Automatic annotation (TrEMBL):
Family of this protein: Belongs to the universal stress protein A family.
Organism listed in the record: Halopelagius inordinatus
Superkingdom in the source lineage: Archaea
Protein name (Swiss-Prot/TrEMBL): Nucleotide-binding universal stress protein, UspA family
Residues annotated as domain UspA: 3-127
């Protein structure tokens, strides 16, 4: 079984782009399993990851394509949570969405994607840039 961890933020378009790439990975759907991880940075209402639209849409897309999917949630730093989830589940691959940012924007605000790429001890796929 090929296990993929997908970091899902609040943007449904990013989440769908990530899971589309998982579906397109070589091998049959029965050979793939996916863990979707959503990290709450601020969650005053106490929502769960399954209530987040981007997570629901990503999970629905995987299920429509016959891929086994599990949803996890955490709080704190998203990059740390993605890497920790991948390490704990002995993932074969991490998938995260990329986005265009100016050099100043990267320096000032950091990047979850960049932190995952630099902090992971396993392959990382960065999907589409908008």
């Amino acid at each position: 079984m090929y296990h993929v961890v997908v970091g899902v933020d609040d943007e449904a378009e990013h989440a769908l782009r990530c899971v589309e790439e998982v579906v397109n990975l070589p091998g049959g759907v029965e050979e793939k399993s996916v863990t979707l991880i959503h990290t709450f940075v601020d969650n005053p209402s106490g929502a769960s990851a399954t209530q987040v639209q981007s997570v629901r849409e990503a999970a629905d897309y995987l299920e429509e394509h016959g891929i086994e999917c599990e949803i996890e949630e955490s709080s704190g730093d998203p990059a740390d949570a993605i890497v920790r989830t991948a390490d704990g589940g002995e993932a074969d691959l991490i998938v995260v969405g990329g986005r265009k940012r100016s050099p100043a924007g990267k320096a000032l605000f950091g990047s979850v994607t960049q932190s995952v790429v630099l902090g992971a001890q396993r392959p990382v796929m960065v999907t589409g840039v908008d």
